[in-house]
Amino acid sequence: MSGHKVLIMALCLLAVTLSDVMFSGNAWAQNDVGTDRNIAPQVPSADRQQKNKVFLEHADVLVADEKVSTEYQILRGNVVFRKEGVFMYCDSAYFYDSSNSLDAFGNVKMNQGDTLFVYSDVMYYSGIDEIARLRYNVKLENKDMTLYTDSLDYDMIENLGYYFEGGRIVDTENELVSVYGQYDPDTKDAEFLFDVELINEKYVMHTDTLHYNTDTHIADIVGPTTIVSDSNIIYSQRGWYNTEADKATLYDRSLLVGNNGIKLTGDTLYYDRVAGYGEAFSNMLLTDSVHNSILDGDYGFHNERENKSFATLRARAREINNSDTLYLHGDTIRTYMLEDSSRVMIAEPNVRFFRFNIQGLCDSMTYVQRDSMLYMDRHAILWSGDRQITGNSIDIHMNDSTVDYALLPDYGFMAEFIGEVYFNQLSGKEMKAYFKEQELRRLDVSGNVQLIMYPMEEDSTYNKLVDAESSYMIVLLKPKQEVDKITMWPEVTGNVTPLYLAKKSQYYLDGFAWYDVLRPKSPEDIFIIPKEMEELFNAPTNLRRVRKN
Question: Which terminus in the chain has less CB density within 10 A, N or C?
Answer without folding.
Answer: N
